[in-house]
Amino acid sequence: MPDKSASTDVVELILDDHRRMEELFRQMRSVEAERADALREFAGLLIAHALAEEHEVYPALKRFRDVDNDEVDHGVEEHEDGNKALLALLEVDDVGGSDWDEKLEELVEAVTHHTDEEERTILNGARENVPMERREELGTTFTEDRARHLRADCGNVDNIRRMVKA
Fold first, then answer.
1. Residue 131 class from Cβ within 10 Å (0-12 exposed, 13-18 middle, 19+ buried)?
2. What phi-psi label fits residue 102: left (phi over 0), alpha (psi between -120 and 50 degrees) or beta?
3. Of 115, 108, 107, whose CA–CA distance to 50 is shortest?
């Protein structure tokens, strides 16, 4: 069986990020976890992931006839909704308090709605219509762009405020 962690297929890389986000949601909900640390990791991952999709993946997928361009555009709108929900959670002072739990659930709802829709529409469209060689090229550029954003601390609250207000 091939090692999926070594895959450069952009679809698999995006799915791997989605699964990591789900794990971070579990940690942020757990009283036994370091919730603030999980949120910091999540913030960086969400922002870097979305920016890399918007800069590298979505424009390339729109060039394929059978990939739904409206869904790709809708994906960008949903990234904005996720960013707003993330900012609301980052601005809560009492980690684990009732306001934290409420804002966390709003974030979970926004992000899981997007990831579910993206997996069913955009990523399935990419699997069916984009040749593996191109998906691997996109995977490489996605990974490089995401890493560049992570190195720039894209998940810090000031950056997210700028993005939401823009």
1. exposed
2. alpha
3. 115
Q: pTM value?
A: 0.92
**Crossing angle of the two packed helices 35-52 and 10-29, in degrees rounded to 10:** 160
Q: What is the chain's length?
A: 166
Cα–Cα distance, 40 to 38 (Å, whole number): 5
In the numeric block, which tokens belong to residue 76?
Answer: 């960008």
- Residue 114 zone, left/alpha/beta (φ > 0; ψ -120 to 50; rest): alpha
Rounded Cα distance, 57 and 164, in Å: 21
pLDDT digits (tens, 9 = 90+) for 138-166: 999 999 999 999 999 999 999 999 999 87
